[in-house]
Design a protein that fits this description.
The complex is a heterodimer of chains A (about 500) and B (about 90). Chain A is α/β, with parallel strands linked by helices. Chain A contains 14 helices and 25 strands. Chain A has helices spanning about 10-15, 30-45, 65-75, 90-100, 110-115, 140, 180-190, 210-215, 235-245, 255-265, 285-295, 410-420, 455-465, 490-500, and strands at about 20-25, 30, 55-60, 80, 105, 125, 160-165, 170-175, 200, 225, 250-255, 275-280, 300-310, 310-320, 335, 340-345, 355-360, 365-370, 380-385, 395-400, 400-405, 410, 425-435, 440-445, 475-480. Chain B starts with a helix and ends with a helix. The chains are: A alpha/beta (about 500), B mainly alpha (about 90).
Chain lengths: ~500, ~90
């Protein structure tokens, strides 16, 4: 097994040089062409003085170009940082000031937005677009084909940083090493068992841990990666058509993306033999929907993966038979990727041991960017779980106040801390209500002056300066005081039941 | 009332119906519907199909952009553009 991310292509490069490796909205590349592009990109990035240990922000859509950049950055021993090119530019600026990248690759529009907000504009490297709006490859293609450049990289050196929301309102950079990623990729490839005729899909954003599977696992088996264009990413019918036309047979996404497919008219046109594997992660999939998949794709292997950005997949469960719709969602299952998982017990309760899930092992992150890295590689998940007698884990709920909205992790505290900065508000509490497909954030706020209340649209606009749409409140209730429990903490249970009753 | 005004009024009423009742009064023609979380990116497909049914036409999927559906004004413009040829034929 290779020891660094940029070596994962080597097997397919020699075994299947002329088979398609990546089919993106911008380019379709064979393994041989992918490798040539990576060589040129490495040369280009080196001319921009990217070297070992340097962070490089990639603020572009999911494309063959972005993938080429990730490989090239790895060859130089650099650390790539995927940035959301559709999110608020303030968030991108916060990340830039946190991880201080050598350069940030972005398109002209983004450059113009960011230029006013960051101090060192020379960091911003503009990637042009062609007449169709796709990323232009002219910069790379003008490079003459250079010789192989590789800087030394150690198993434990950082390879990429994925940003997640922090409860303080400041994003936290989850720093993952080559070894972290490869431990997961090796495990996932074995489970997927793909061959050179197989096709994987890229649906998850490159800033999301799920995409590590999409980008690297197909490389090990000479399989193709088909990138679902951003323009149809939320359109179930169009995705179904894309799946059929590209013969996609390995799928991995958040459950809400699977729901998009299931709900579309075109879902029934997918043959029962479409998928070899279906994997989902990020939040539970209600049993009634898992059953739709289990019944329709009777020969597919269907898995629930569990993990955090900080751990990647640390447990997994295979759904082998139909489920009772009134049961809780399937277990998160058994340890994966050579990780050790255990329960930090809050109290022993016979065989039903319950407490916070703790993970230690090869996929657990180096640490948060800016912190001193721990060598023990232990991560406390803040998820409350129960262990059944046979070593299988069941997810119960978050230990603290984090919710999932359409697959995104939302720390309620982050939304509250931004809302608290509004000049007209004295106290705020946010609760999340609704089922997975219809989850909403409801704010309870104490105004400074009950005679002049801010409007909901005003509060939304205030939040939208810093937060993406899924973190924005759907409703606001003005109250005189927030209910407190016996410890003086906000009584969230009471607010939640009030909000659910409303 | 001109043709474009009629489209605008109809778009507005469709969007209002689509949103929670308690939201419709605060939405102006330029309020950013997606950016501000009034419509989530998953349910936008539903809104598109309602618009297509109500105006009996189809958006060209190749040119569909999320930004197009970010306000009542931009939706109206897109509908006007897409239905123009059709109305001209009837005129």
């Amino acid at each position: 097994m290779p020891k660094r991310l940029d070596e994962l292509i080597l097997h397919s490069l020699s075994a299947f040089p002329n088979r398609t490796a990546v089919c993106g909205p911008d380019r379709t590349l064979t393994f041989s062409e992918l490798n040539d592009s990576i060589l040129k990109a490495t040369y280009w990035l080196r001319s921009l003085e990217v070297g070992k240990g340097d962070r490089v922000g990639v603020c572009l859509e999911r494309s063959a170009f972005s993938i080429v950049m990730f490989h090239a950055i790895s060859r130089l021993g650099g650390v790539y940082v995927p940035l959301d090119n559709e999110g608020p530019s303030q968030l991108v600026c916060d990340v830039i000031s946190d991880c201080t990248p050598k350069i940030v690759l972005c398109d002209t529009d983004k450059m113009l937005q960011l230029a006013g907000q960051i101090s060192d504009k020379s960091k911003l490297i503009t990637v042009k677009r062609d007449a169709k709006g796709n990323i232009s490859w002219s910069e790379i293609e003008s490079m003459s084909k250079p010789t192989d450049i590789r800087n030394e990289v150690d198993w434990n050196d950082p390879a990429y940083i994925l940003y997640t929301s922090g409860s303080t309102g400041q994003p936290k950079g989850v720093c993952l090493s080559h070894g972290n990623a490869i431990a997961f990729i090796e495990w996932a490839a074995k489970l997927t068992n793909a061959n050179e005729d197989d096709v994987f899909a890229s649906h998850a954003s490159f800033g999301f841990g799920i995409s590590v599977y999409d980008i690297y696992v197909p490389l090990l088996s000479g399989s193709k990666l088909a990138i679902i264009p951003e323009s149809i990413r939320n359109n179930g019918a169009a995705i179904c058509t894309f799946i059929t036309s590209h013969k996609i047979n390995h799928w991995y996404s958040v459950p809400s993306a699977l729901l998009l497919l299931i709900r579309s008219q075109e879902f029934k046109t997918l043959p029962s033999t479409q998928f070899k594997t279906i994997k989902y992660a990020g939040e539970p999939l209600p049993n009634r929907f898992a059953n739709v998949l289990r019944t329709k794709f009777c020969n597919s292997r269907i898995f629930n993966f569990y993990g955090n950005t900080e751990t990647n997949v640390c447990t997994y469960f295979e759904i082998k038979s139909e489920l009772d719709p009134s049961d809780p969602p399937v277990p998160i299952g058994f340890p994966s990727c050579g990780n050790r998982v255990w329960i930090e017990e809050a109290g022993i309760n016979g065989v039903n041991r319950q407490g916070e899930l703790v993970v230690q092992g090869p996929t657990v992150m180096l640490g948060y960017w800016g912190d001193t890295f721990n060598t023990d590689r232990v991560y406390r998940t803040r998820d409350l779980v129960r262990e059944t007698g046979d070593g299988c884990f069941l997810y119960i709920c978050r230990v603290d106040n984090v919710v999932k909205i359409r697959g995104h992790r939302v720390e309620i505290g982050e939304v509250e801390s931004h809302l608290m900065r509004h000049p007209d508000l004295r106290d705020v509490a946010v609760v999340c209500v609704g089922e997975i497909e219809n989850r909403k954030l409801i704010a309870y706020v104490v105004p400074n002056d009950p005679q002049s209340l801010p409007t909901l649209v005003g509060l939304k606009e205030f939040l939208a300066k810093h937060l993406p749409p899924y973190k924005i409140i759907s409703m606001v209730h003005f109250v005189q005081t927030l209910p407190k429990n016996i410890n003086g903490k906000i009584d969230r249970k009471k607010l939640k039941s009030e909000a659910e009753a409303a | 009332m001109g043709m474009n005004d009629q489209i605008h009024v109809k778009v507005r009423s469709i969007v209002e119906k689509f949103l929670d009742k308690n939201h419709s009064s605060e939405i102006s023609d330029t309020t950013k519907l997606i950016t501000l979380g009034y419509i989530d990116s998953f349910s936008i497909v539903e809104l598109i199909s309602i618009l297509e049914t109500e105006f009996s036409f189809q958006f060209d999927p190749a040119t569909l952009k999320l930004e197009t559906f970010d306000s009542i004004n931009s939706i109206s413009e897109a509908v006007e553009l897409a239905t123009q040829t059709k109305f001209l034929k009837h005129a």
